[in-house]
Amino acid sequence: MKRYRNGEIWDFEHDVNMVAAAHCNGGKNDSKFLNYGVNGRKVILGIDGGTTSTVCICIPLIPFTQPLPDPLPVLARSVAGCSNHNSVGESAARETLEQVMADALARSASTRSAVEAVCLSVSGVNPTDQHRIINWLREIFPSHVRLFVQNDAVAALASGTMGKLHGCVLIAGTGTIAYGFTEDGREARAAGAGPVLGDWGSGYGIAAQALTAVIRAHDGRGPETTLTHSILDTLNLSSPDELIGWTYADPSWARIAALVPVVVSCADAGDPVANNILHDTVHELASSVRAVVERLELCGEDGKDPFPLVMVGGVLEANRRWDIGNEVISCISGDFPGVLPIRPKVEPAVGAALLAWNFLMRQRHQEALGR
Amino acid sequence: MKRYRNGEIWDFEHDVNMVAAAHCNGGKNDSKFLNYGVNGRKVILGIDGGTTSTVCICIPLIPFTQPLPDPLPVLARSVAGCSNHNSVGESAARETLEQVMADALARSASTRSAVEAVCLSVSGVNPTDQHRIINWLREIFPSHVRLFVQNDAVAALASGTMGKLHGCVLIAGTGTIAYGFTEDGREARAAGAGPVLGDWGSGYGIAAQALTAVIRAHDGRGPETTLTHSILDTLNLSSPDELIGWTYADPSWARIAALVPVVVSCADAGDPVANNILHDTVHELASSVRAVVERLELCGEDGKDPFPLVMVGGVLEANRRWDIGNEVISCISGDFPGVLPIRPKVEPAVGAALLAWNFLMRQRHQEALGR
């Protein structure tokens, strides 16, 4: 096999091959086993390339004739920093990706030759990005390895449906997006255009509305709210005027969105302003789901067909008495009684691996049909 | 007089002094006249230090016993680039300020010794900034020159009230703020906290709502609107999806706010979505004014006292059938029948000069009373 860029990252493969050779045939070199890691096992890599961290999961290639085991066997998990090229630049992103995949393979005692498919999920990826990233991966892996690059919403859906691309996924963390897929390959999205373009259901949107409410109470345009004391206390500021400097000191959306738990606490304690913000959030998130479900007719002609709704992200989880996720579900259930809410038990990187497994299965199925 | 920083900027003063010497006493050097420019005239400098340009106005010092003439005599006007230190850095800002003041004095055939007072208006200035900027100016001017640094809202009010600090000013350009002052020196503000903190009545706010409406119509969350075609056409884009890239390609708020005329055109042509955005804008702007007027009791105890409302900025001017400024006035008139709307006939730099004149007059008055 030819040597690839950053060759030293892959030095471990030599040791894996040596161990494999020692295990098999009493040490007699057997090229078949040598290529498949310690035990000839084929693997799939699933990667969640987020803006704060990158997670790579290595799972064994489960035979397509079997149902997926629950829980899914995971051979290794490795974590690295940000691999979003928009955020850290192309060369740092490539190196992070290569390192995290090498780590996961090394921990699985596997090599690149044992890899059957790689699926990388990246936030806000467009077709040009997809093409470029596939070319990076192509420089790393032998030509038989199947490579997939998908929007993070696709992997998030797969993390709830065990890899099947059907239904709707609602993501609400720092940002928010609703994405939907039909079994015949159509897709649709709503929101996901960032804070300037009206993602009011996002963590950033919730926090920005809360900060605005504090400013409005302070200058006499809005009602008093307990958000003032809670937010100033959290940020260690002494006056609402100081919020202006704090807000514009750093353009990070995640820094603003980190105030969501403060808003939920105030709403829990009965503050009407905080409650209004969360009710608006529920309305916004439900309207994103509704737009996707209606455009794809996921609910069927009579509006009652069952469809999965996968719910992902900090805004939809871990709330207290005020549970934004549950409120969204009850709002959606009113319109679409067939909705099947799913909170994924596995992380997005596993969703990406399951997606790769499903793509491979579909391909084998088509090959078996002679297409 | 000592030589100041960037001495060459002030070389013209030598020529002015020579001309003055030649004019007076048949060329006999007369130090009194020499210090006062060509004709012994004392002057005031008013400067509007904006983020796009800096304007400096030189007016003669009108005797305090006379009413201000209308129109006000302006000796010179000079223009330079941005002098906002937050935007271009301290050293570039200082140089721009010094250059624009030197130009105005040279065009007035005056020197720094003829200057009685300088008033510089800067957007979003805080006490720390004020102190620092006064120190810059102190390095340029002889010690007898009175120096004032004020928020741009103060100069905007003065541009409508001929320098008197009483009433409310509403600014709505790229950003928005309402500022109010009472005759006994109290002040209050509303809004002006920037786009993240709810300045929805600003040009940026109007345009961001319009862009959001296009995204919502596109993904099925909102009604169709003619804003889609008009905005895409203006920006030379082919699909609402491309708006996302366009929006985040450049963090300039003014670039987004430049879409306001498109929104007004669509509203003029009857588009309900554009009309709603402008009605919300009127409501937001009126609520800022109302908050300031109520906190300062500018309308008196019975709510009917007269008070000036100075209206400044692109959002409040130059509209067509849909006139945001007029709508705000009619909204405010309903609450406060004593409101006296003023659209300033002079620019903010003149307002700054008038402010300096008023400060000087008040000081002389207090000196005359032996305080």
UniProtKB/TrEMBL annotation, chains A, B:
Signal sequence extent: none
Broadest EC class assigned to this enzyme: transferase
One annotated GO molecular function: N-acetylglucosamine kinase activity
Keywords from the UniProt entry: Kinase, Transferase
Entry-linked Gene3D superfamilies: 3.30.420.40
Residues covered by the ATPase BadF/BadG/BcrA/BcrD type domain: 45-356
SUPFAM superfamilies tied to this protein: Actin-like ATPase domain (SSF53067)
EC number(s) per entry: 2.7.1.59
Family to which the UniProt record says this protein belongs: Belongs to the eukaryotic-type N-acetylglucosamine kinase family.
Protein name, per record: N-acetyl-D-glucosamine kinase
